[in-house]
Amino acid sequence: MFMMFAMTSDSVGEIIKEVKVAFDVTNAQASLMHSLPMLGIALSGLFLGFLADKLGRKTTIVIGLALFGIACYSFLIANDFIFIVSLMSLSGVAVGIFKTGALALIGDISSSTRQHTATMNGAEAFFGVGAIIGPLIVAWLIHRGVPWQYLYVIAGGICTLLIVVAAFVRYPKYVASHQQTVEKVSLKKSLALVKNPYALGFSVGAFLYVAAESAIYVWMPSYLVCDALTIQDTYACYSEGAARQLAIYSVTAFFVLRALGRFVGIWMMARFNWALVLMLFSGAIVLCFTVGLVGGKHIALYLFPLTGIFMSVIYPTFNSKGISCFEKHQHGSVAGVILFFTAAGAAAGPLIMGLVSDAMGGDAKYGFMVATGFATLLFLGLLYNYIANPTRQRLAEIEARDYGVAGQQS
């Protein structure tokens, strides 16, 4: 599911290029293809996240997948810009539904909060794989003269298979002691979680992380282009060989490193202090951004994609630890809250960076200065988290009550 979602969401840059030509739309209009699906995910996570706790994980996942599949197959008849954007928005709502169900399910199948974090990194690793293969599929389709809409048809086929699998797989049951609480799950109770310090803290962290991360795949290509924009080869200022190739495929390099880092994170987060790892890795991101800006694009060419390694484990761990601070019957609701802030960061971050860059003459480096600010705030928060360790007692209580593990370092 995570891979299928990433195949479509992280291909939007390639799709926008085709849509602008086909429908003669402006950059602002084309940007709706990114911002509206993110808005759909955000609102769906916040207002519908409680369904995973109210209806159960399987029912919620199947509903979300069915809605996503309908949107995907409808792209076969999508020949109007407004219709295309509407389908993308619908797919965003569907993602918010099935992803909160999936995130809650990870808690059900985990035997400890430490294993929960490792499993979450594994799930997000497949998201990283989808982010790599999605744009490649679009490029291959266009090269073969096949409409880009068939990417969604492929995703729809995967979605249909996932629905069949989800329908037949046996899902874990809630423990009996939670049954009365489950029946009282509601939208009002779900929204009330926004005020909870654990949910709010990890949600703000997710917002800052995604806002900083989006600078890489949205604005890094613009920052790395040569100053002489009139020349045909926008990367001609880089020497022939590895540097030129890295400049051309810098975003792909970032996604590859991020995916590899998340697979390594399955092992790493099961063995090391998560708070220390996140603090060090967020500091490394700030260092890469700062040196890349001060040293110029020839230095940033190497340091910006490298952040994929350091960014790899941060978001899955935020999701895992944020969800693990709550009882299992609340996992869907809190996953929806974190997902809301995640999508808000993905929508607001690039927009703020773009506005600042435009205000300063159009140079993308000013947008990266904003991204460095987001990354710095993230580092300061994680530094506090490592020093004060505000979740230690809460995670220990959850370990003892929900997982039957006492005295384990979480």
UniProtKB/TrEMBL annotation:
SUPFAM superfamilies: MFS general substrate transporter. It holds the Pfam family MFS_1. InterPro entries: MFS, MFS_dom, MFS_trans_sf, MFS_Transporter, Sugar_transporter_CS. The chain crosses the membrane at residues 32-52, 59-76, 82-105, 125-143, 149-169, 198-220, 242-260, 272-293, 299-318, 334-356, 368-387. Keywords: Membrane, Transmembrane, Transmembrane helix, Transport. It is a multi-pass membrane protein. The keyword Transmembrane applies. Gene3D superfamilies: MFS general substrate transporter like domains (1.20.1250.20). It is found in: Endomembrane system. Residues 1-393 form the Major facilitator superfamily (MFS) profile domain. It comes from the Bacteria. Belongs to the major facilitator superfamily. This is MFS transporter. It comes from Salinimonas profundi.
